[in-house]
Design a protein that fits this description.
Blueprint lengths: L2 E3 L20 E7 L16 E2 L2 E2 H10 L4 E8 L4 H8 L8 E5 L4 H10 L8 E6 L7 H12 L4 E7 L4 E5 L2 E6 L5 E3 L3 E4 H9 L21 E5 L10 H9 L17 E12 L7 E3 L2 E3 L13 H14 L4 H4 L13 H13 L2 E11 L9 H12 L6 E6 L5 H4 L3 E12 L5
Parallel strand pairs: 2-5, 2-7, 5-6, 8-13, 17-18
Antiparallel strand pairs: 1-6, 3-4, 7-12, 8-11, 8-12, 9-10, 14-19, 15-16, 17-19
Helix pairs in contact: 3-5, 7-9
């Protein structure tokens, strides 16, 4: 196990101080080693920006601000220690923060975090998902109180208000009684020595994704405390929009009546490529279409993806495709334009922007676009990290007028709609 004090280049920074006399006895283990795929292309969600601060920094700050916290152990995947240091910013200078390398499974990462959690006077351990960045102080306080009052473990839980159905093969088979159901959140809190012993006793082939399950033996007392809707888990790109709307400029939660407006941006893109004299296929919308000629270009000539990139860059006010991938650069000769759209989507993630919709129109006499429309939509959605329902592909002709009407090339125009929710620099 690698164990790294999180001081980085600012090791001389003064640690946070507090005048609260509460005994510091809590070690928070923040699991940040995951690499979820539902968030789309770009950095891991724990390292992305949420309202001007990384998701990881939000989660760590919540514990560092609580008077019972003696240590914050951040567990990251191998090779991401430097990313964590950068994401923490000035929090990396707090003497209570350490970074640990996790394992292949969540339970391995938690075990690594627990091994680094022990220290003088530390008796409690909180296991928290880094992807739940808006952690109210009240939840931590309630969990500590539950263990002080005799619980072996405790977790925040939200009630279930929706009717729950059992589904099999896309068909409803039954209704589940919801009165006894709850939505579990993190952090989950335990007595450090007890949780460590239970992890040490796990069989190698055991798969535990929820530490509370180690206590569901009928003999342990597990208390639930009131959860918080702000404590939702970041899973999809749209979740960044929701959580940013719940933050005020100082990083604290807002009441629903005070939600700020979302900044909606649109960008337009246009591109043209002529047909070359060689054979096909022609690359359009990220897929190859059988045709007697291809498109002449420095890259693969995908006018559809090029127009979409420029639309996204336009909404971000971030230059154009030529400024990011200049045709004079030999690296992009014959390059697959899929990487250009993936890059544009990652620029959105870096800026705290969510792609709400992409609309592409192709102008040509040939080839016929209709039979390939849905394949293009699926490929564009995959590259942009959004649902296919948010991608439109249309085609038209120029009624045999101009260069497209004469079959000399293909034109494309695109519109991108983004929700800008991060800090704009």
């Amino acid at each position: 196990m690698d164990f790294v004090p999180a001081f980085g280049d600012n090791g001389g920074m003064t640690s946070r101080t507090t005048t609260d006399t509460t005994v510091r006895r809590l070690a928070a283990v923040i699991v940040a080693a995951g690499g979820g795929t539902r968030m789309g292309e770009g950095p891991e969600k724990q390292f992305r920006t949420l309202a001007g601060r990384s998701v990881l920094a939000h989660s760590a700050s919540a514990f560092l601000d609580h008077p019972t916290t003696a240590r914050v152990v951040i567990v990251v995947a191998a090779g991401h220690e430097a990313d964590a240091m950068t994401a923490l910013g000035d929090l990396a200078g707090d003497a209570r923060v350490v970074i640990v390398t996790g394992g292949a499974r969540r339970q391995d990462s938690v075990a690594a975090g627990l091994a680094a959690a022990s220290g003088p006077g530390i008796t409690l351990a909180a296991i928290h998902d880094a992807a739940r960045p808006l952690l109210p102080q009240r939840v931590i306080t309630d969990l500590v109180a539950a263990l002080d009052n005799g619980a072996d473990a405790a977790l925040p839980v939200l009630p279930v208000f929706d009717t729950i159905k059992l589904i099999a093969d896309a068909r409803v088979t039954d209704t589940v009684e919801r009165a006894s159901l709850g939505r579990a959140q993190t952090p989950q809190m335990f007595h450090l020595d007890d949780l460590t012993a239970r992890h040490d006793g796990l069989a190698p082939d055991t798969g535990i994704t929820d530490d509370i399950r180690l206590y569901e033996d009928g003999a342990s007392r597990i208390d639930s405390v009131a959860g918080d809707e702000c404590l939702m888990k970041l899973t999809r790109p749209a979740d960044f929009v929701i959580l940013t709307a719940l933050l005020n400029p100082e990083g604290g939660p807002l009441m629903p009546a005070a939600l700020p407006p979302i900044d909606i941006r649109t960008g337009n893109g246009y591109d043209v490529h002529k047909f070359d004299d060689g054979g096909g296929p022609v690359r359009l919308g990220g897929i190859d279409i059988a045709h007697d000629r291809g498109l002449a270009a420095h890259s693969d000539g995908d006018v559809g993806l090029h127009a979409l990139c420029d639309a996204i860059f336009g909404a971000l006010a971030d230059g154009d495709i030529g400024s990011h991938f200049p045709p004079s650069d030999e690296r992009w000769k014959n390059a697959d334009s899929a990487q250009f759209l993936t890059f544009a989507a990652s620029r959105c993630a870096d800026r705290g922007a969510t792609i709400l919709h992409l609309d592409l129109t192709l102008v040509c006499e040939r080839p016929k676009i209709g039979p390939h429309r849905d394949a293009m939509r699926a490929r564009i959605a995959q590259l942009a990290g959004i649902d296919i329902s948010r991608v439109a592909v249309k085609a038209t002709t120029s009624e045999q007028l101009g260069f497209t009407g004469r079959g000399e090339g293909i034109a494309a125009q695109a519109t991108a709609t983004l929700a800008m929710t991060g800090r704009q620099e």
